[in-house]
Here is the input.
Amino acid sequence: MTQITPPAGLLEDVARALEPAFRLDRLVALSPERALYHAWDRVLKRFVALRVHLAPEAPGRSWFVRETETLAALDHPAIRHAYAAAVVGSFAYRTANWIDGESLAEALGRGPRPIPTVHGLVRELLGALEHAHARGVIMRRIVPTTLMLDVSGRPVITDLRYANWCLPHVPPADSAGGGPFVAPEIRDGAVGEPASDVYAVGALVYHALTGQEPDPEPEKILPPTRARRAVPAALERVILRALARRPEDRYYTATEMFEDFVSDAGTFHEPAVAPQVAESGFERRLRRALGDDYELLEEIGAGGFG
Here is the structure.
């Protein structure tokens, strides 16, 4: 959220209303209707993400409440947990787990993610989608700025404002946005289906592997190996199917995509011109574990550094 200057006394009113239950340590973000605090829950004795809706008469109040209900309906490690929610005076709030880490967008500022890390990203995100879809929730929009990575690297989906459950409450002037990380049918205003979320995961994984956003036009998306030669052939195949324009050409469900991925995940593709050299079981395991670093070992072994 963008930092703004709040009306005089508004944040003081928030503090007075919530301080009995929470210690407000830090204002993290502020928008015209919402504030996010890093806070200490005096009852649960733990740090929480405390999000407060500030404007009771605004159309966004029912939207905030519905997103809270959507988060509370889900219980998966890769989806932010809602701990509690209430209305105090004119303010509505919810608490959720505070995530120590960074967003995927911030992590990619240092370059593409290691391939073994991306394998874990795929598994966690598809598991989260399986969980949500089984409960009737289509997320519709997952973007790098709101996909958090905790200190262990586990992804956590934090923003469900545009999920199908919330759509009746989204103000007409607002839109899901998301650009290349949102399925074409969602950009066109559709409610979406499980295959729409499959597209979102495909776009995020493409971005994590290459450091580049996929082209908004699916037909123009280049194979990930064009940007990063070490991308496993199996992973590239799964990503490109997930990024098909038509939902019927993608995986129908996150489960189908997951099963296809794990069937041969970790097989690294050798360029067609490479000589056929038998690879021992140890070398294969080392290749899978090191990812791009294995290429560095090959360079050193070949005298690539003079």
Summary: The longest strand covers residues 22-30.
